[in-house]
Amino acid sequence: MSRSFHPPQRILLGPGPSNVEPRVLQAMLAPLLGHMDPVYFQCMDEIQDLLRSVFETGNRVTFTVSGTGGAGMETCLANLIDEGEEVVVCVNGFFGERMAELAARWGARVIRVDSDWGQPFDMQKVRDAFRKSSARVVTMVHAETSTGMRNPIEELKSLRDVRDAILVADTVTSLGAHPVGIDRNSIDASYSCSQKGIGAPPGLAPVTFSERALEKIRNRKAPPRTWYLDVQLLNKYWGSDRAYHHTAPALMNYALREALCMILEEGLEARWQRHERNSGTFVAGIEAMGLEMLVAPEYRLWSLNTVRVPDGVDDARVRSRLLNSHNIEIGSGFGVFKGKIWRVGLMGANSNQNTVLLLLAALKSAIATRA
Ligand SMILES: *Cc1c(COP(=O)(O)O)cnc(C)c1O
Fold first, then answer.
1. What's the fold here for domain 267-368?
2. Which one, 6, 97, 119, 293, has least CB within 10 Å?
3. Considering only CA atoms, which residue is closest to atom 6 of ligand 1?
4. 300 DSSP 8-state letter
């Protein structure tokens, strides 16, 4: 065994992680601080402010959970769900399924509103299911990474006409690439991750909670069964008390801080437009090659682009050619789309024209190569 590890320089165009700007990696080389150091507290304050800007929210309780996107999902559900209460979960892909699974594990009686994977929700069905139930919590995945579909979290607020709904949105693959408008869309709780649209390494989950969500959490019958992901305890550390809860992964937070600074330096609008433009270039190239996108244009994500594997082409063989001959990673389909689609992430640093052109050329050659 050699003494150090020398991984290859890959171009990461799968569903995340995505390549990280050198400036973000550089930030991790800064001196390590303890989690109770006043200078680290300043860094935490800055991260909270930066996250509020990127989430487009004024929510006081906005911070990072030490864990990946899945820990963010678990944090939102474990804190918001009281044992035995009904929860409406919208499912049209793998991550919607996972929300249903986690909600059930945290004690919810899950009311699913299903659409086929890759098909839009019928919002009337969502409203009807909500009206007929006793649920307060309703969940939706904004960017369904398993299918490349953008779901209408902006339409959830119409549920407030029925009852005082608590709206939960998964913004794991949208934050930093698509507008999420947490306040504008009346979303009460949302979680994301560091390694997709934000452009930092994996390991942190940004979360945000509205006052209405916090009120529901404060009125729980019993504390959530998770101690590590208890929002009120975490907020005693992130909030003004600064009470020790767990050892902060400080270097990861430096990296996230740097990536968030880069997002605001670019400007949110400009960043969204860049993701839209480069996704458009990719789609134009794919269609010029005679290939087809999975999702209808009006529902397509810019951050995660799904291409149908053409008949007679071996999905896995093309992906391994891309990896071995071009150092490019793309994602495979799973569930009902196993072997049927490629999932191409164009997020953060990788949403640029050169990368798109490189990928199109490599994909064309990988498909054309026989055996
Ligand atoms: C990636 C992803 C997650 C899970 O995030 P991890 O960082 O892998 O834990 C959750 N939801 C969606 C929509 C995702 O794309």
1. Aspartate Aminotransferase, domain 1 (3.90.1150)
2. 6
3. 69
4. B
